[in-house]
Amino acid sequence: LFGKIDNLRKANPHNTLTVTASYMEIYLEQVHDLVDSKKTNLKARQHPTDGIYVEGLTKKKISGLNNILGILATGHDQRHVGSTKMNTRSSRSHALLTFYFTSVEVLESSDGVKTNTTEAKLNLVDLAGSERIKKSEVDGEAFTEATKINLSLTTLGR
């Protein structure tokens, strides 16, 4: 991916292509920023033209694979996990890693210089698995987590 981006930059140095990324989790129906652990209980909003977004979610500029691996490592350390009878390390949340691509193309014409901006977004989702409460023998907080996981998966399936 970044080799392709470098080739595009070399082909036309006047154009710009930027990549940013965010990483969040949904845990007990609350959104948490996995890049900046201080940002919890973030609000999902809807923009009239851009669609759904999370207010205050950290977006980091990406220049290569090491940046991505750093975000993944930081987020992995922040994710909510627990132990059940069926799985010793069970994800207790859904996670969403999003890449934002912005390309600004410089166009020269007889009318002068204009720009054309193109934006794209790639979402990579890790859904927590459904919980068989009877088999996993969860109770207390783990029971609450399991019911929220199942509720959200049921909602997605509608």
Describe the structure.
By secondary structure, the protein is an alpha+beta fold. It has helices spanning 2-11, 65-78, 133-136, 141-156; strands at residues 16-27, 30-33, 44-47, 51-54, 60-62, 81-82, 90-91, 94-109, 112-126. The longest helix has 16 residues, at 141-156. A hairpin with a 3-residue loop joins strand 3 (44-47) and strand 4. The chain contains four helices and nine strands; from the N terminus they run αβββββαββββαα.
> In angstroms, what is the radius of gyration?
20 Å
- Note the gap between the termini: 34 Å
Largest sheet report: 5 strands, antiparallel
Rounded mean pLDDT score: 82
Number of DSSP E strands: 9
Helix/strand class: alpha+beta
Strand content: 35-45%
User: Could you spell the SSE succession in H and E letters?
Assistant: HEEEEEHEEEEHH
Shape: elongated
Q: Could you list the spans in which at least 5 consecutive residues all have pLDDT below 50? A: none
**Alpha plus pi helix count:** 4
Relative helix content: 25-40%
